[in-house]
Amino acid sequence: MVSLLLLLALFGHVFLWIGMVNRVHALAVPYKVGHAFSLSSLFCAIALPMAFAGWLHSTDFALVNRFDWRQLGRVGPLLWSVYLPVCWVSAAVTLSGWVWRIALRRPTHLLRFARTRRIELAGDSCAVSSREQAHHFLVHLPGNQILKLDVTERAIDVPRLAPALDTLSIMHLSDFHFTGLVGKSFFREVVRRSNEMQPDLLVITGDVIDHSDCIDWIPETLGKLQSRYGVYYVLGNHDIRHDVDRLRKVLSDSGLVDLGGRWVEIEVGGEPIVLAGNELPWIAPAADMRGCPRRTPGGGPLRIVLAHSPDQLHWAQAQDADLLLAGHTHGGQIRLPLIGAVVSASRLGVNYDSGIFYAPPTIMHISRGVSGELPVRLNCPPEVTRLVLRSPEPPIGNV
User: Fold this and answer.
1) The dihedral of CA 176, 262, 169, 195: what is its sign?
2) What CATH number was assigned to the domain covering residues 111-390?
């Protein structure tokens, strides 16, 4: 019994520190502060159990038979009275969360279908030079899925979607993380695959750049993206480490429409659509939606919000948004068998790691993203997603 309790405390201790890292990286803290906190947390997660194990070894107690809990007082009253109970609570919360996500959570009833095909892009290079095609050695680690792309199509019932917009398609891309560690040829191929799906709208939800030199990649990569009614974007927390004004200019010069902190109204098939951007908590303000066209008796116009972080869900709900598109979490980037994501930069931890969620009146789609600052993905390949919006009322003339 004693061994089990200590094992649960160790489990809770590790996930307590992981949980704090998840939530710190959801805040607008400076990069160096967040990085230092992550390293300190990793040290604490490893060093504290080792120190405790060393203390246990220095005693002559056999844990199973005659461990005296009062001996913990020698380590310190805080360990005995505060920290161990906190670790047990952390273990209980983590385990209950796993049970809910693995055994109890079901896809939203608004999801009609999801189809995915996985493509190995390592051999599909359209590079014109070896430098464009070069990848960091980490890319070639056994089991690394960084060059395996999931091309996904999901059909979603949108409760207030006008019949005229039935089958409207939106290509959702996120988290390119141009570092130079994954060659430009990979991203050119991602763009080509995206264009093949011929979306009506195309959106990018932040974290385009991780190295300033790679801003020059944009015209030959993202600048080639195509959709019938435009390509729109917001920036993410990695983008603000660089010259944001220059980045926005290059993106705009390449034909992409900046939605950072503003909204626009477009028309598709005679129906108005409001597109709005939210780059909080890193870049303020979010779009001021008070001037948006008012809802008609039929529920329109459709409101679509782009945000980098899924933590902006409550804001989207408050704006009466029909659809929120976000990224940032990378789906965990490294997912454990059965358990799934462990690391997810969100105030809600791994509850919103990727996929589709419904929090009336807002449907949220979270992309796993195209790449990452660290070019390693395990059990979590990058993805591009074509969302097909369906109306509860069929268009006139259809049955």
Assistant:
1) negative
2) 3.60.21.10
Q: Give pTM, 2 decimals.
A: 0.91
Of the candidates 154, 152, 136, 132, the residue with the CA atom closest to the CA atom of residue 144: 136
Which residues make beta-bridge pairs with 273? Answer: 266, 302
With a CB cutoff of 8 Å and minimum separation 6, the contacts of 178 are 187, 208, 209, 210, 211, 214, 215, 217, 218, 221, 371
Structural contact between residues 329 and 341, judged by C-beta atoms closer than 8 angstroms: yes
The predicted-structure confidence for 240-292, as pLDDT tens digits, reads as follows 999 999 999 999 999 999 999 999 999 998 999 999 999 999 999 999 999 99
The answer to whether 60 and 36 are in contact (CB under 8 A) is no
Is residue 123 exposed (0-12), middle (13-18) or buried (19+ Cβ within 10 Å)?
A: exposed
Q: Where are the domains of the chain?
A: 2-104, 111-390
> Cα(280)–Cα(299) distance, rounded to whole angstroms?
27
Residues 315/277, Cβ–Cβ less than 8 Å: no
